[in-house]
Design goal:
The chain is mainly α and 192 residues long. The protein has 6 helices and no strands.
Length: 192
């Protein structure tokens, strides 16, 4: 198989000839931080369309491997919608009964990269998908973490690679005495 077949570099960006430094043209920058922010936003809004690769030619530059695997990537969309709906329903029904604070979905599912002007339509769709997918996974992990804190705040015997942020407060695996003494305290979400 040729070395270039798995090459992930998709697009060569061509940057404008003019200086792109934030304060390159000091005459256009107003006084203070607010002036610098306004200039930056205006300047990036002017430069980003120049960096955009047109949709059809951009898609054609993808390697064969990315085009072939796209259906498998987007096939995950349906289970993600189902996961989102199920964990939201679960927490709306169960968390109030257990006294567990509700997880705010909008703090985990953030979709905003599609607003970048330098992205073409296919890249914007990919960014919406990735923002939604990774956000739902983070949202579900927080709901699962709060559930685990309530029902079973005990660490595993085997070290896990990427535990949720509540896991460090759980009791050690074989600490039966500590579990009996601290179960109610760990289960209390007011101190979390």
């Amino acid at each position: 198989m040729p070395n270039g077949f798995f090459n992930r570099e998709l697009i060569n960006l061509k940057f404008p000839e003019k200086s792109t430094h934030l304060l390159a043209d000091k005459n256009k920058v107003g006084p203070g931080l607010w002036g610098k922010i306004k200039y930056y936003l205006k300047d990036t809004g002017r430069r980003h369309p120049a960096l955009k690769n047109q949709s059809i030619p951009g898609i054609l530059k993808y390697k064969c491997l990315q085009i072939i695997t796209a259906p498998f990537i987007y096939l995950c969309f349906i289970p993600t919608i189902l996961l989102d709906a199920v964990v939201t329903l679960y927490q709306k029904v169960c968390f109030p009964l257990y006294g567990i604070p509700e997880v705010k979905r909008n703090e985990y599912v953030v979709i905003d990269r599609h607003k970048l002007k330098y992205l073409n339509i296919s890249k914007k769709i990919n960014c919406v998908y990735c923002g939604y997918f990774t956000g739902v996974i983070s949202y579900a992990q927080e709901i699962a973490g709060r559930t685990e804190q309530y029902w079973c705040p005990i660490k595993h015997a085997t070290k896990i690679k990427s535990p949720h942020n509540r896991y460090s407060n759980f009791m050690e695996y074989e600490d039966a005495k500590g579990y009996q003494e601290n179960f109610v305290k760990i289960r209390n979400f007011e101190e979390s």
